[in-house]
Amino acid sequence: MVVPALNEAARIADVVRHALADPATAEVVVIDDSSIDDTVALARAAGARVATSAMLGKGASMRDGALTAGHELLVFLDGDLAGLRPGVVSDLARPLAEDRADFVKARFGRSGGRVTELTAKPMLKVFFPEISHFSQPLGGLIAARRSLLRALAFEDGYGVDVGLLIDAHRAGARLAEVDIGSLEHDSQPLVDLALMANEVSRVIYQRAKAAGRLHVEQIAAMHETQRQAAAALDYILTRRRGRTRLLLLDMDGTITPERFVVQLARATGVEAALEALMDRPSQDSATRSQRIAALFRFVHQQQFERVAREMPLRQGVVNWVNCMRRAGFMVGVVSDSWFVAADILRRRVFADFALAHTLQFDGEVCSGVVHLNPAFMPMVAGEKPELCKSHVIRRFRGDPGEPRVQEVWAIGDNDNDLGMLREADRAFVVEPKSPHLKHEADAPQVGSFEDLMLHVPKGRGVPSASEGARASGG
Predict the structure, then answer these.
(1) For residue 457, what is the DSSP state?
(2) Among 15, 23, 270, 385, which is least packed, fewest CB within 10 Å?
(3) Residue 349 CB partners (closer than 8 Å, separation 6+)
(4) Does residue 79 share a domain with residue 27?
């Protein structure tokens, strides 16, 4: 087993001991990147063989590990890992030992980090769709045949792991993925995330060019895929950062007095056609959503964005969101409308995320196709209703990340919010469009977000209602 390491004194001994306790481990080789802490001494004391890397960089250390190790089946672990369950080395090596694979990636946790979800996965989906299903393309936990690794190119920086995955695929290697449960891993500072994203992009572009897959049309498609990735619940959950309180705001009629799609129809001259489709009780939500989206085929993306930027907001909503965030809530805009608008409106009210369905834009022009967000769908197949905001709350509560979500608030105004309001621990109705909504949802009715200021939980840094009114200009 090989462990690239740089200043990993806090955890390196535990990683080495964990690996040596696994029956599949014949030896542990730590490749040190000239650490200035006690990494080397602690690794040796724990039973590892230590060698110094030929040059700085994880890729160089991995390459040196492949050259130094004395066995054909190699497993790579990072030196900053914690929470590894017993048998991880055996699990990763098993597909190799049973001759079912030549290169194995670990799958762990619910999703990848920001660079994985917003850079690597969208790019792989466009340029290398055959391997886009791998959950952790940037993860450093791999197993591979030494003979294969010695024939591959090791990038020096952050792109080494995705580069090896692509190169192994292009070399005809048999690929596999193994679920190893959850683990703890030190997060990267924001400045490092920017460098990582740039390096990962460069590596994938380079491989795509070498494979004859780099075309202008694909680059545009990649940017569209990256935009859609920001609407995925898995990505949003990576940004929860330990918050246990959640506030979900409906968009149309709640944070805005008007409905986005009505304003867009007015701006594009399809009001009459839209009115014929709106609020038909005989149509299911998915069918109605698809038919409405088709009305805006060939409308430029900038038109969608302009309408979203110009829609009036309800008085006091920005201050309310600010106060709730300061009280420890993760705040999201949840809409049956489209992410292209919901994300702009959530940024206008300074919310943390937006969840909505995604319209497909080809060359920044609407294709008329809408992709329904899986977050609105049941966690269990066949569960009713098939499309409902209540499922969003259930998915947040089901997030295995610690600490778990403990409290959910929801604000809505219409019948399509009813499931969400019922599912929440605390709910409010703002100027309800349906006369029976207040009673059906068992939620207090408020006339404005200024009224909601009275309900902000007391907490550090939360201004009073009068202070909030002054801050928002009355």
Answers:
(1) P
(2) 23
(3) 249, 255, 313, 317, 318, 321, 333
(4) yes
3-state secondary structure of 81: strand
| Residue 227: predicted pLDDT | 67
Weakest-pLDDT range from 157-166, 188-197, 247-256, 363-372:
188-197
Amino acid found at 207: R
pLDDT at 160: 94
pLDDT for res 191: 46
Residue pair 112/135 in contact by the 8 Å Cβ criterion: yes
Question: Interior CA angle at 374 toward 370 and 379, to 5°?
Answer: 155
Note whether 51 and 107 are same-domain residues.
Answer: yes
Report H helices in 245-355: 260-268, 271-277, 285-294, 301-310, 317-326, 339-348
CA 98 to chain CA centroid, Å, is 34
The residue assigned the tokens 């055996």 is 90
Whether residues 24 and 119 fall in one domain: yes
Distance of CA 342 to the CA centre of its chain: 17
Confidence of residue 244 (pLDDT cuts 50, 70, 90): very high
SS (HEC) of 326-393: HCCEEEEEEEEEEHHHHHHHHHHCCCCEEEEEEEEEECCEEEEEEECCHHHCCCCCCCCCCCCCHHHH
Residues 382-419 pLDDT 10s: 777 788 999 999 999 998 888 999 999 999 999 899 99
Q: Are residues 454 and 360 in the same domain?
A: yes
> What contacts 312, CB < 8 A, 6 or more positions away?
256, 257, 258
Same domain, 204 and 302: no
pLDDT in tens, 94-136: 999 999 999 999 998 655 677 888 889 988 988 999 999 999 9
One-character DSSP codes across 185-203: EPPPPHHHHHHHHHHHHHH
Strands 426-430 and 2-5, bridge-based pairing: unpaired
Q: Domain boundary at 200, 229, 258, which?
A: 229
Nearest to 462 by CA among 329, 314, 313: 329
Q: What is the DSSP letter of 429?
A: E
Q: How many domains does the chain have?
A: 2
Residue 448 maps to which CATH number? 3.40.50.1000
| Strand (E) or helix (H) holding 50 | strand 49-52
Give per-residue pLDDT as tens, 73-84: 999 999 988 888
Would you place residue 468 in the very low, low, confident or very high pLDDT band (cuts 50, 70, 90)?
very low
